[in-house]
Design a protein that fits this description.
This protein is of the alpha/beta class. Helices cover 40% and strands 17% of the residues. It is built from 9 helices and 8 strands. The chain has an 8-stranded parallel beta barrel, surrounded by 7 helices. Helix 6 runs parallel beside helix 7. The protein binds SN-glycerol-1-phosphate (1GP). SN-glycerol-1-phosphate binds next to strand 8. The site of SN-glycerol-1-phosphate (1GP) has 14 residues, from strand 8.
């Protein structure tokens, strides 16, 4: 089970490192070398998806990734049509920071039977969108207000409510390409207040920032945008090292 696998990595290394692959941004020529690079650099798995996919063929993209790697491939869905039976798991995201019923439960009713048929593992995740400088695609598409970045207590209460509703992960999202990542105070408040793993993503552009988020209690770090630039590929290993705080045990 992928959820248990992630928990095992967290026990072994303090935090897990996932890279987000976006079908719109990774050409066929770059996809396989990038995946190999991630594997040798110590990445723990891939998220695939996004709030808005314009050109890529999502299912074909997942198929290519699965052929290329034995690392977990987890759908990070922006829409019901991103459910695909070739992936290993899907983050069953509810935008708990918003009050838009479609993104709290509506899409889920449509997706649940498809997920059941596809037999992939749903991982119930409370998705908390946080203000990060300017409006992000996630904010716009979900039609919801983000949590103000100077209100860690709102994020913490929201995360705890998600935990009490039975969710297994919290995703603190600044938005892909965000100009500012999730504030440290907020990561601390959320991870102290609830006891399910906290994913932090959006706008993380240096290994130092990734490490700070882990020191504040994040247990899964996601980066996407930064490695869309080929010149940055050499830094994947430094990110993995910064995130794998206690890299002593092989999972
Ligand atoms: C977006 O959290 C992810 O959903 C990753 O964000 O692309 O800014 O790294 P970046």
């Amino acid at each position: 089970m992928i959820y248990q696998h992630l928990l095992n990595i967290i026990v072994a290394k303090v935090a897990s490192y996932l890279i987000l692959l976006d079908p719109d941004k990774l050409s066929d020529e770059k996809l396989l070398p990038f995946i190999k690079h991630c594997e040798i650099s110590g990445v723990d798995g891939f998220l695939v998806g996004g709030s808005l996919i314009i050109n890529g063929d999502f299912k074909e993209f997942i198929g290519k990734i699965k052929e290329a790697t034995s690392l977990p491939v987890i759908i990070f869905p922006g829409e019901v049509n991103q459910v695909c039976n070739q992936a290993d798991a899907i983050l069953f995201l509810s935008v708990v920071s918003g009050r838009n019923p479609e993104h709290l439960i509506g899409k889920h009713v449509l997706a649940a039977p498809i997920i059941k048929r596809s037999k992939i593992e749903p991982i119930s995740t409370g998705y908390i969108i946080v203000e990060s400088g300017s409006m992000t695609t996630a904010e716009y598409i979900s039609g919801s207000l983000p949590v103000p970045r100077n209100k860690p207590e709102i994020a913490a209460a929201t995360a705890l409510a998600a935990q009490y509703l039975g969710m297994k992960l919290i995703y603190l999202e600044a938005g892909s390409g965000a100009s500012q990542p999730i504030p440290n105070e907020m990561v601390k408040a959320v991870s102290r207040y609830c006891n399910i793993p906290v994913i932090v993503g959006g706008g993380i552009k240096t290994p130092g920032i990734a490490r700070e988020k882990v020191e504040c209690g994040a247990q899964i770090i996601v980066t996407g945008n930064f490695f869309e630039n080929y010149d940055n590929w050499g830094l994947i290993g430094s990110f993995a090292e910064a995130i794998h705080y206690k890299n002593t045990v092989t999972v």
